[in-house]
Amino acid sequence: MKLQRILVPVDFSECSQAALRLATDLAQTMHADVCAFHVLWSPPLYAGLDILLLQIPREGDSRASLRDYLQSRAEQALTDLIEPLGEHWRFRIEKRLAFGNPAREILEVARAESFDLIVMGSHGHGALAERLMGGVCNKVLHDAPCPVLTVRAPAGRPGPDAGGSAQAGPVSSPRAT
Fold this sequence. Notes:
Layout: E1 5-9, H1 14-30, E2 33-41, H2 49-52, E3 55-57, E4 63-65, H3 66-82, E5 93-100, H4 102-112, E6 117-121, H5 126-143, E7 148-152, E8 167-172
Parallel strand pairs: 1-2, 1-6, 2-5, 6-7
Antiparallel strand pairs: 3-4, 7-8
Helix pairs in contact: 4-5
């Protein structure tokens, strides 16, 4: 199997950071490119007007929407996550953001751009995010158009907030249709 493009969904949890480290190690060996992809959850329209109209002030008198604020913070977090990897990196790491349903966006990007592999954490960041990311991981494993390598919390430190080295979980290949 020749890997040219690896998609790494990140939610900034230790588990997804371990997945990114593992993906970059694989990419160096295989001479592949990596795309670190973060999806900002967009609340559904029925979530309530107060959530959808929430405004967060920025410097001066200008006001930015919550969406702009979150996008700015996520872009900086992606940059902070990728920069330390660049010291020894000889290939391209792309950073990308999207708004929407995380599982749907990950699957859409993987299909549309013909990624060869998805490497993702099996748990999210905290109880709610673990529930969301665990659901995201299961959906991606089930519907991905390419193999998926899951990375779980290191041995001895169970849970979504564990750090340390990555442990690869099951690899799922797409179903034959």
